[in-house]
Fold this sequence. Notes:
By secondary structure, the chain is an alpha+beta fold. The protein contains four helices and 17 strands.
Amino acid sequence: MTNTSRVIFEKMHACGNDFIIIDARKHNLNIDENTICKLSNRRTGIGCDQVILIKDPLTHGSTASMTIFNCDGGIVEACGNASRCVASLLMKESNLRSCSIETCDRTLECECMSGNTIRINMGQPSFMWSDIPLAYNPGEPYLTFNQFNDIGISKGYYVNIGNPHCVFFIDNPDNIDLATVGKAIEYDLMFPNHINVEFVCVTSKHNLYARVWERGAGDTGACGTGACASAIVAIQQNLVTQPVNVFFSKQDEAIIIESDGTNIFMTGKIHHAFSGSVLI
Length: 280
């Protein structure tokens, strides 16, 4: 017989990118890949893009740490939208205006701007091929995918902002078959650990419109680190001027991205859908 316990969760989203958030500081949990897949299933479970565990901090001075599971059960390094949701929960529980969250390779400094708007210092981006990682050094800040020339996709700019991304600038992201093209790029041999993919168009000097394919999760509708990646590459290529508003498909809310020349700052709204409990 398998021992189970009833666990309280919060269902939250940012720009439609949704999460099951469990405070693992309050539960002795044994969560495996199978459990994550069951929870994430939109037909037979609760349904989400990612499952998030809030855990005790690993170092003195941090508020908490977080572990991020994609809906396929795999652990990933970062999730900007989920980080804003977790920051909101942590600040509300202790009546704080700021907090710090440890992720896989960095500590995120978070601030409540007003109401449900959270600002996070996402840290420094890396454009080093070995930090993505790529299979080898291409000698350029981008990769060329000639097999997609007929649909207007060629150069993909790579960047790591806690997790890896490949950003393509195209005329109309809505023309892209995400499930085909996004997945093909995610699993390209150039990316041994796979990759998140953004298809982006510039709509004004401050605005981008993007569609995203997340590794291990697919079409999530929006992505916080994807917004950071898209904006920082667009700034670097002199396509936009900051602050940059990144809009995602079917969403009216923007994620606002700024840079001080070193760090990337992400600001956006979070939404609490409902609370519940589940047997795990």
